[in-house]
Amino acid sequence: MSNTHRPDLFANTLNTMDYGVTPQELSDDLAELLRAVKDTGKQGTLTLKLTVKPESLATGQVAIIPDVVLKAPQLPRDKAFMFMTPDGNLQREDPRQKTMKFEAVDGGQQEKAPVVSETPAAPRAMQQA
User: Fold this and answer.
1) Contact 12, 6 (CB under 8 A)
2) What single DSSP character describes residue 3?
3) Residue 73, exposed/middle/buried by CB under 10 A (0-12, 13-18, 19+)?
4) Are 34 and 22 a contacting pair, CB within 8 Å?
């Protein structure tokens, strides 16, 4: 086999294989990775692995199988604080905490505060011609 090959062998192969699906997938994943890096301030990776299998040595046909792996950084997730009950379930309220009941009281409407008007602005001086 000769050591001379097309200088664009990789780019041409990638762009023409799989009818353009792989380069489109890589572009979409790269855009997603860039957004995630910008949003989180953390690094991520986009990996392309090409597996080349001989299909027919007589004709020189090979199969190229792409494997694209995106590992985008994630935003931290909120915690949910829960309490375990004696029977092994979870609930939001502490089972040892007593519940306080609040009721609305009738009557006693609060008066509205009086509206204070602003001091009128001084009249503008008339311009002399």
Assistant:
1) yes
2) S
3) middle
4) no
Cβ atoms of residues 46 and 68 within 8 Å: yes
CA dihedral 91→96→97→101, nearest 10 degrees, is 80
Q: Which residue, chain included where needed, has tokens 């199988």?
A: 65
φ, ψ of residue 29 to 5 degrees: the values are -65, -40
How many residues does the structure list for the chain?
129
pLDDT tens digit at each of 129 positions of the chain: 567 888 999 999 999 988 999 999 999 999 999 999 999 999 999 999 999 999 998 999 999 999 999 999 999 889 998 998 888 889 888 878 888 888 888 875 666 666 666 655 555 555 454
Q: Which positions ≥6 away from 72 have C-beta within 8 Å?
A: 32, 33, 36, 37, 44
Residue 113 amino acid letter? A
Contact 48, 70 (CB under 8 A): no
